[in-house]
Amino acid sequence: MREIARTKMGFFPTQSRIVAAVVKLFNLPTEQIGSVAVLDAGCGTGQAIHDLREIWCSQQPDLNVTLLGIESDKNRCQQAATLLASGKGGGTALWSAIEDATVDQPVSLLWFNPPYDRIRGTGRTEAALFNRVKEWPARGSGLLVMIVPDYVLADAEVGLAVAVERDYELVGLWRYPAPEYQDFKQCVLLARRRERALNKTILTFPRWASEPSKRPVLRDDMKPVATLTPVQKTVTLRRTRLGNDMILDSVSRSPLRSGLLREAAAPAPPIGRPLLPLKHGHLALALAGGLCDGVIESGGNRFLIKGTLTSAIRRISTKDQVDADGGKVAEIDTYRTRYEMNVRCLRSDGSIENYTSAEPAAEELETEISEE
Fold first, then answer.
1. How far is Cα 29 from Cα 198, in angstroms, rounded to an integer?
2. How many angstroms separate the CA atoms of 233 and 106, rounded?
3. What DSSP designation does 46 have?
4. How many helices and strands in the chain, by DSSP H and E?
5. Which terminus of the chain, N or C, has less C-beta within 10 A?
């Protein structure tokens, strides 16, 4: 990501001209029971979906549209919360990273304009975040508007197009118009979530994702190609975990802040002497437990030490069972699990010495290595 993008945390809001063109791609529901729930994952100030609702409600005043947003920047999230709640149907914004949030009910429309960046060693941000949010629209009717660079969608190694194809049926794909296209070479994808995901073992790279130069251009006079479907239940956003920013913010406003800072800045306590003097047996346990593995030196000689503990079930005694007449009818064996210490010493001349606490004459019935 460019340095200017990093300072803005990847925040580049969708241009108002693009929003005005995309809003024309939808037919509004003729009969509404419930509310059209629109979720913007990475909403910034919430302006894009706010403008969607304003245009739809001007066309159909009785339309009820609930807006939800997720934003990782606290200041922008506060702006979004105020803006989304101000229109008909209300709305809310959750201060959270996209990967730390979820919804408890499916939504009518997912607006997804993710940060454009690479994740070192694992691929692209767009693909990783899409896999996090792809299940949020309703099955069979939920719609997805995704705004990404067309070269990312066309790259088979990224895997974004295949991920979309598996869970969504493409409705339309358009390139940004000029001059907006020049900044990030973006495209707008509109898709409807499938009732059932396709078998990923037979998926191939979709033809619609290739050749970005042949995609139609998004125009100011677009016609409707998909219908919004209201949802019956109220959608609630919630966090699945707390990010570092939230934790630090909570600590900074906590009455325990001073005490926590003192604890964090306090020097490590001194290591006191053992409660009891160390005996030779303690050293043997440390050796056998692998706590002292490595090279040691004594009297100018170097040794490589490796210790293990094993548990073994041993027979410790045999007792005759007799009948009432004193005759032997059976033998009763008594077994006990014993932990045996083993230490191997490799000398510099290549010789190996073994030390063990096992009884050489004891019969081993079952041995299991418990720690190395």
1. 28
2. 9
3. S
4. 11, 18
5. C
pLDDT given for residue 118 in this prediction: 86
Phi, psi of 321 (to 5 degrees): -105, 125
The answer to whether residue 364 scores a pLDDT higher than 70 is no
Count the residues in the chain.
Answer: 372
CA distances from 64 to 43, 53, 226, 265, 275 (A): 20, 9, 18, 53, 71
The predicted pLDDT at position 41 comes to 96
Query: 3-state class of 117 per DSSP?
Result: coil
131 close to 157: Cβ distance less than 8 angstroms: no
| 150: three-class secondary structure by DSSP | helix
pLDDT tens across 226-285, in order? 999 999 999 999 999 888 887 777 777 777 777 777 777 788 777 666 667 767 677 777
Rounded CA separation 359/186 (Å): 75
Domain 3-245: assigned CATH number: 3.40.50.150
To the nearest whole percent, how much of the chain has pLDDT over 90? Answer: 54
Cα angle value 66/70/73 (rounded, 5°): 135
> What tokens appear for 78 in the block?
């506060």
Beta bridge partners of 27: 227
Domain spans in the chain, listed from the N-terminal domain onward? 3-245, 280-371
Output the six-digit token pair for 248. 């630090």
d(CA 101, CA 242): 9
Cis ω before 206 (30° cut-off from 0): no
